[in-house]
Amino acid sequence: MLLHPPTEPVPIQEIGIHQNVRLFIKREDLIHPQISGNKYWKLFYNINHYLEKNPEKPYIITFGGAFSNHISAVSALGNLAGIPTLGIIRGEELQNKWRDNPTLLFAKRNGMNLKFVTREEYRHKEKLTEFLEQEFPEALIVPEGGTNPEAVEGVKMMLNGQTKDFDYLCTAVGTGGTIAGISKFCEDNQKVIGFKVVGDTSLENKIFELTLKQNFNLIDSDFGGYGKMSDENIHFINDFKEKYNIPLEPIYTGKMMQKVFELIEEGYFPENSRILCFHTGGLQGIEGANLLLEKQNRNLII
Ligand SMILES: *Cc1c(COP(=O)(O)O)cnc(C)c1O
Fold first, then answer.
1. Nearest CA to ligand 1 atom 2
2. What are the respective helix, strand and coil percentages of the chain, to the nearest 5?
C-alpha cells in the first residue's frame, strides 16, 4: 500500500472560546510534508486501488490550475512512488513561464510532465479525458481536484472518535469532494458547513449526488472570486499565525477561518457549540501567492 492510514491521528488544537462557543482546528495539513491535507485522503483509495490492480506500467494523469495543490500533491506522490505523472495545466501562456511558478517548478522537479492547454480546452475536460483514455488505456486519470466517489470514501479517514464530539464540522469547498465525505460519514447529530471559495452554483447538487445526505450548508466565502486575495484576508492570515502559531493559505483555509470568525461574531452558532474546522493543507501555495502580492506591491503572507 503506497498511502497509509496515519500511525497516530493529527492533532486537534483549540483556538479558544469566543462569544460562548469553542473553536478547534484539526491539522490535516500535517498528515504528509508534500501530499498535504485533504489531497492525501482524496488520493488514498484512488491510488491504492489502482496499484492493487497491478498495471504493468502505472501512469497517473490529472488536471489543475497553475497554483493547484492537487497538481503539487500528485507530482510528489509520483516522485515518491517512482510512477510517471502527467499534469494537464490550465493556461497556454504558462508554456514558457512555468519556471517562475513555484507550484509548477515543484511539479516539474518531481518529474511530472506538464501539458499546457488553453482555458477553452480546459473547460471541456471531458473531451480531453476521452482522448487520454484512448491514448493511455492503462493510466489512472484523476479528475480536477481529485473529486470522485473514491475520493469521498477516502475523506472518511479525516473523521475518527475525536471528531465525533463536535456539533459543527467546517471545511473549505472547491470541487466538493471533501465536504461530501465529511457529510457522508459524520454522525447524525453533526452539522456540516462548507465555505465555498468558488462561484460554481451547481456545487450543492454535485455534493448532494456524492453524499446523498442533507446535513450540509454552503456559505459563500469567495471574497471576490476563486483565487482572488484581499488585503483584509492577508491581514487576517498573518494575525492568525501570530496569535495561534498556525499557518493558513489565502485560497481555501484563510477564507474559511475568516468567515468562521465572522459567523461567530454574528451569533450564527448557538451558545456552547463546539466547532471543528479542518485545516485542509495547501500551504505550498503561499510562495506563489507571495510572488503575486509582491508584484502588486502589497503586504505579504508571513
Ligand atoms: C483542494 C482543497 C480544498 C477543496 O477541496 P474540495 O474537495 O475540492 O472541495 C480545500 N482546501 C485546500 C487546502 C485544498 O487544497
1. 174
2. 45, 20, 35
